[in-house]
Amino acid sequence: MLTRKKMLQLLATAPFIGGLAGTQIVRNGTKLSRNNYRRNYINELGLRTFINARGTFTTLTGSLMEDEVVEAINFMSDKYVSLPDLRDRTGERIAEMLNCEASVITAGAASALTLGTAACITGDNQDMIRDLPNLDGPQREVIMQSTHRFGYDHAVRNCGIKIVEVDSASDMEAKINDNTVMALFFNAAREHLIGREEFVEICRRNNIPSFNDAAADVPPKENLFKYIEQGFDLVTFSGGKAIRGPQSAGLLYGRKDLIEAAKMNHSPNGNTIGRGMKVNKEEYVGMMVALEVYLTKDHDKEWQEWLRRVEVIRQQALAVDGVEAEEVIPDGPSNVFPGCRISWDEDRIKVSSSEVIQSLRNGHPSIEIGGGSDNVYANVSMMKSEEAGIVGRRIREELERASA
């Protein structure tokens, strides 16, 4: 696995950063300052901002980019470069960082699912690349466990394939045939009928590419390396969640021949299924820098900061009689961030969780928070450091008002 020392050595000798970007990226705790903005676009457009106490949801615009990422984007915004060259160079750098054969930055993890599937179907066949998804002959098939079907498998079906569900290892063996082009593993599924290692072994035995969708599955950062080490041919992660890169960027990496085929199906190549999945020059460099920052940051320190925020919120909530508040750390593998679950006796505090959630959303400042039928749940990972106290105070105020 790539160590912090090796990563820093790589960055210190990186001609791409020094030559193409030509700007010093400040690290190790020293933050870059944001620009002063002349216009307030939020006010102009009549939008509301909010404190994000829910997590890295796309509908809530994911995460906030690191300052180094913003600097990289701003730098690239007034430069012209060859887009294919930029794609290839950033892909080479990311492959070095992730200890894999090859990589390409995509327009999010869903784009990576489409491009990876296309690669497994077409290889470097230009006629098939042009005609996808309307190919001659029998319909191509992708194997998935029945418990792994999810809303994003539409990105795979975009390629004109049929998803074949399996319920066991023997069922998977039996259903692989000449039309099978790939097997997709949904890493965050609640139930794995076939474990990762066995899934990969079946794929290898039958010469079928295996693809692991691990879009939201950091932290821990070790997951970025783990699935390639387990033998998956392709892996995707979202760039705009915990890695805190551009919201519209993602990572696709793994076997070199499949990554090369994915690039052939991708923008800026015309008449391809991925032509509309454009990644601009700012996103290429921004995503690369986001991964650099993520791999070199002090994750233990960040985790302790998250725990501090949870305790701030928990203590505020416990100040109200009849309230229970507990630290919660999800089992994973996706969205493993500390949070605070708050519940109360509705006979004493006469307000429902949905009413509290709505009051927090409509209040000042506006707060987006999650919850269930009998609780509210604050995910602290996307907050700014000072916002935990605000969230805790507002929760306490709403519960005190209802108990008065």
| Rg calculated over all Cα atoms | 23 Å
Stretches with pLDDT under 50, minimum 5 residues: 15-28
Structural class: alpha/beta
Order of helices and strands: HHHEHHEHHEHEHEHEHEEHHHEEHEEH
Would you count the extended β strands for me?
12
Tally of domains:
2
Overall mean pLDDT stands at 93
- Report the biggest beta sheet as strand number plus sense, adding barrel if it closes: 7 strands, mixed
Please provide a written account of the structure.
By secondary structure, the protein is α/β, with parallel strands linked by helices. It folds into 2 domains: 65-296, Aspartate Aminotransferase, domain 2; 299-403, Aspartate Aminotransferase, domain 1, CATH 3.90.1150. The chain is 41% helix and 15% strand. Strand 3, helix 8 and strand 4 (162-166) form a beta-alpha-beta unit. The termini are far apart.
Summed up, what is this model?
The chain is an alpha/beta fold and about 400 residues long.
Secondary structure layout plus pairing:
Blueprint (H helix, E strand, L loop, with lengths): L3 H9 L2 H7 L19 H4 L6 E3 L13 H10 L6 H15 L4 E5 L2 H14 L3 H6 L9 E5 L8 H4 L4 E5 L2 H7 L4 E7 L9 H10 L4 E4 L9 H7 L4 E5 L11 E5 L1 H9 L16 H16 L2 H20 L4 E6 L10 E6 L8 H10 L4 E6 L2 E5 L7 H17 L1
Parallel strand pairs: 1-11, 3-4, 3-5, 5-6, 6-7
Antiparallel strand pairs: 2-8, 7-8, 9-10, 10-12, 11-12
Helix pairs in contact: 4-13, 5-13, 6-12, 14-16
Features:
single chain, 404 residues, Aspartate Aminotransferase, domain 1, seven-stranded mixed beta sheet, five-stranded mixed beta sheet
